[in-house]
Design goal:
This protein has about 140 residues and is of the alpha+beta class. The chain has a single domain, classed as CBS-domain, CATH 3.10.580. Strands 1-2-3 form a three-stranded mixed β-sheet. The chain is globular and about 45 Å long. The chain starts with 13 loop residues before the first helix and ends in an 18-residue tail after the last strand.
C-alpha cells in the first residue's frame, strides 16, 4: 500500500493521515539528548517532548544546534505549537506541516495527549506513515 497522496486528502481528516509510529523524549530531556536523538536518523526532523502521553513541546535541529549547553533542559527551548487536532481536515495538517522546515506538525487531542505526527514526504507528494511503502520522509 502506498502513502496517501496529498491530492487525495480533500475528504480526509488528520486522524486519517497521522503517522502513529513515533517516539517522544521525556519531559526532562536535555539539549544534548535531543541532539543525539535527532542525529541518529536522517528522517528525524522534529523531536517531541512529553510527560507520559501529555505533549509538552517540539524541537528541530535549529533549536538545539550551536553553542547551547548540552546539559540544559530541552524544555527551555521547546515550542508549544503549532499542533493540530485529529479531527481537523487533513489539508490543515498538511498546511501546518509545510509551514515548518521539518515538514511535520504534532497531532495533539483536546486533552493534550500526543497522538502522532502529520509528516509530508520530501518530494511534497504524500503523507509519511500512511502506507507500507518506504518513503523519503
Amino acid at each position: 500500500m502506498a502513502h496517501t497522496k496529498l491530492e487525495e486528502a480533500a475528504a480526509l481528516t488528520v486522524a486519517d493521515v497521522v503517522h502513529r509510529k513515533f517516539s517522544a523524549l521525556p519531559a526532562d530531556a536535555t539539549i544534548g539528548a535531543v541532539r543525539e536523538w535527532l542525529a541518529a536518523s536522517t528522517s528525524r526532523r522534529m523531536a517531541f517532548l512529553a510527560d507520559g502521553e501529555r505533549y509538552l513541546g517540539s524541537l528541530t535541529r535549529d533549536d538545539v544546534d550551536g553553542d547551547r549547553d548540552p546539559a540544559a533542559p530541552a524544555a527551555d527551548v521547546a515550542h508549544a505549537g503549532p499542533t493540530v487536532l485529529p479531527e481537523a481536515p487533513a489539508r490543515e495538517g498538511e498546511r501546518l506541516a509545510l509551514d515548518t522546515a521539518a515538514r511535520r506538525v504534532p497531532v495533539v487531542d483536546a486533552g493534550g495527549r500526543l497522538l502522532g505526527v502529520v509528516s509530508v514526504t520530501e518530494d511534497l507528494q504524500a503523507f509519511c506513515g500512511t502506507g507500507d511503502a518506504p518513503g523519503d520522509c
